[in-house]
Amino acid sequence: MPQPPTRFLVIDGFEFAAAGASVHGTWPAEVFPRLRGMLYDSQGSVEYDLRGSRDVHGRHGLDMRIRAALRLACRRCLEPVSVTVEEDVQLWLARSQAEIDAMPLTAEGPDGIVASKEMAVRDLVEDELLLALPYAPRHEDCPADGARSPGARQSPFSGLRGMLRGRHRH
Ligand SMILES: [Zn+2]
User: Fold this and answer.
1) Max alpha carbon distance in the chain (Å)?
2) For all residues of the chain together, what is the average pLDDT?
3) Beta carbons within 8 Å of 31's beta carbon, 6+ residues apart
4) What span, in angstroms and rounded, lies between the C-alpha atoms of 95 and 160?
5) Separation of 140 CA from ligand 1 center, angstroms?
6) What is the number of other CB atoms lying within 10 angstroms of the CB of residue 22?
7) pLDDT for residue 117
8) What is the predicted pLDDT for the residue at 111?
9) How many A from CA of 17 to the centre of ligand 1?
10) Residue 46 C-alpha to ligand 1 middle, in angstroms?
11) Is it the case that residue 122 has pLDDT exceeding 60?
């Protein structure tokens, strides 16, 4: 039987972790439905590596490594801005949300997620990817800012002056 495309890859959380299994691959950015709406264009890819593990407390977990290069729209000028993501995340697997809620919150240490027998790898990767992306992507040296800052070629008053001149023409 042919294997389904890896984007539909599903793991059994606890079994995957207990076996120390791993999956990895590279997907075009556009296969992620929630990410797609944030992309400037369909360029870009996401490399992921997911490994089952056990932490020092004996809890089952997932170690995820994400490397992505994407083009998002700059919040200021709406032109493309290149964004790279290098994210290494540890998650521990809980049997229920109540189990996660019962854990004391710590600044560091892995986040808990509710495990199931059918966890879509694409969704797991996308969840972490979205958390890692800049909230408001923008160019470090955005042309939209340059036009407004003092010392730019245009005087800050040139727009106003033009407006006044236009008024006199009537
Ligand atoms: Zn910009």
Assistant:
1) 81
2) 84
3) 7, 122
4) 64
5) 8
6) 13
7) 96
8) 87
9) 42
10) 23
11) yes
Signed CA dihedral, 30, 35, 40, 46: sign only = negative
For residue 138, being part of any structural domain is answered with yes
What share of the chain has pLDDT > 90, as a percent? 64
pLDDT of residue 159: 45
CB–CB of 35/126 below 8 Å? yes
The total of structural domains in the chain comes to 1
In a domain, 155, yes or no: yes
pLDDT at residue 157 in the model: 44
Bridge partner residues of 63 (DSSP) = 51, 90
CA distance 64 to 50: 5
Please tell me the distance between residue 5's alpha carbon and the centre of ligand 1 in angstroms.
36
Is residue 1, in this structure, part of any structural domain at all? Answer: no
Distance 138 CA to ligand 1 centre (A): 5
pLDDT digits (tens, 9 = 90+) for 69-106: 999 999 999 999 999 999 999 999 999 999 999 988 77
* Tokens coding 68: 């992505």
Domain range for 47 is 6-168
**What letter does residue 2 receive in the DSSP assignment?**
P
